[in-house]
Automatic annotation (TrEMBL):
<dbReference type="GO" id="GO:0005886">
    <property type="term" value="C:plasma membrane"/>
</dbReference>
<keyword id="KW-0844">Vision</keyword>
<feature type="binding site">
    <location>
        <position position="522"/>
    </location>
    <ligand>
        <name>Fe cation</name>
    </ligand>
</feature>
<dbReference type="GO" id="GO:0007601">
    <property type="term" value="P:visual perception"/>
</dbReference>
<keyword id="KW-1003">Cell membrane</keyword>
<keyword id="KW-0716">Sensory transduction</keyword>
<feature type="binding site">
    <location>
        <position position="311"/>
    </location>
    <ligand>
        <name>Fe cation</name>
    </ligand>
</feature>
<keyword id="KW-0378">Hydrolase</keyword>
<keyword id="KW-0564">Palmitate</keyword>
<comment type="similarity">
    <text>Belongs to the carotenoid oxygenase family.</text>
</comment>
<feature type="binding site">
    <location>
        <position position="239"/>
    </location>
    <ligand>
        <name>Fe cation</name>
    </ligand>
</feature>
<dbReference type="GO" id="GO:0042574">
    <property type="term" value="P:retinal metabolic process"/>
</dbReference>
<dbReference type="Pfam" id="PF03055">
    <property type="entry name" value="RPE65"/>
</dbReference>
<keyword id="KW-0449">Lipoprotein</keyword>
<dbReference type="GO" id="GO:0003834">
    <property type="term" value="F:beta-carotene 15,15'-dioxygenase activity"/>
</dbReference>
<dbReference type="GO" id="GO:0052885">
    <property type="term" value="F:all-trans-retinyl-ester hydrolase, 11-cis retinol forming activity"/>
</dbReference>
<dbReference type="GO" id="GO:1901827">
    <property type="term" value="P:zeaxanthin biosynthetic process"/>
</dbReference>
Amino acid sequence: FRVEHPAGGYKKLFETVEELSSPVTAHVTGRIPTWLRGSLLRCGPGLFEVGAEPFYHLFDGQALLHKFDFKEGHVTYHRRFVRTDAYVRAMTEKRIVITEFGTYAYPDPCKNIFSRFFSYFKGVEVTDNALVNVYPVGEDYYACTETNFITRINPDTLETIKQVDLCKYVSVNGATAHPHIENDGTVYNIGNCFGKNFSLAYNIIRIPPLQADKEDPMNKSEVVVQFPCSDRFKPSYVHSFGLTSNYIVFVETPVKINLLKFLSSWSLWGANYMDCFESNETMGVWLHVAEKKKGRLLNIKYRTSAFNLFHHINTYEDNGFLIVDLCTWKGFEFVYNYLYLANLRANWDEVKRQAEKAPQPEARRYVLPLNIDKVPAQHWAGSLQGSGSSASTPRTTSPHTRMYLFFIVAFEFPQINYKKYGGKPYTYTYGLGLNHFVPDRLCKLNVKTKETWVWQEPDSYPSEPIFVSHPDALEEDDGVVLSIVISPGVGPKPAYLLILNAKDMSEVARAEVEVNIPVTFHGLFKRA
């Protein structure tokens, strides 16, 4: 059931807005549950050009931090730009100063040829534009992108506190915007690194919870385990990973970073990050598993056909198997190639035409045997995924099953009742439905029965749904789902915070604001 968007209201998701000097009161219809107290914090781009210079890619606009506050049935909205180096220098020099994901920052036209030549040798200035997510470390909150820089922010005032360079604490070249946070506050993340004898690898890092000594937990970061890279010089792009109480799952996809391009051509011919990606058309996908507590790689490699992966839904252990639920995009071509702003702002027919050329979305479940000697052959009958790799020992490749969870529209930006069911057997996931990359519905999926529930309204464009559990919840889906919706063509108010009953995705309340809110990617609910 495809919905059409000929009016093009989705273009408002990619429009520059101003920050607010103080929070504004939202107009509530319906009734906000009295137990819902705290803040929804979200990140996304808010400045899509500097003067006459445009940003070209979805992941280039300057980071804007948003907050909806809930208190005794009242709601306020606030937003501030994150004062990153990229933002502050752009504001100061009135031009794009730091190269972003898909936009090259040209050298300062005021400098002469000699000073420009020498600035090439200072090395690459890596962006700190923290537009992707916000997460807690100890008692602190950080906005982040996927480089080595994260930015500490004040979750109450949205003020920027300081830039932090992860390289100073632990051996990674960058880290994902999707760390796993355990209930005691331990943070796990993954990043590319230089492994043994100059070859590339992926490090899992662990940041312990805040201790009694109140020392910054970042100082106690450590590498837990290292996953090898399928190609010595070309690490795969990694956006998230899976974690259970005993295992870490890393999915190595065919979207590769060509490091030589990254290091050499960078400053010399107007390259940006997007120019450094390429696809390996023959490797397919490799899944790796490590034991979390021992920091030891499992001696099994799982192989399957090519897909892009950005978001793990959940991972759990089940009777000698790992269940790995993923939002995949079928094929080896990089999905980000289709996320240039010119594509996303096009008229509806053109948006559809482009999106149909891209890898197609599919939510999938992979079932990985942890001990392949003990798996009876009939377990795999009729569901075996062939593996085309040649192996030195039978143990290096293994069967696994795959099943489809959802593929009407893209089920993306998945969220679950993470606090209670992250890394454990679960039933429900909530996602943003992308219709040719246009977010136009919110979906709930029962991963056991594949039953779905959908919230959708004409010309309305929601964001990632955040599940907030009822404080006295007895069931997995006791709670609400929060999403920021823009509805440009509908009525006087351009945007609102939507509250749905997580059981049936029916509307509980909405809190409307008088300002447009551009696209946001990820965020969290911080309880009061």
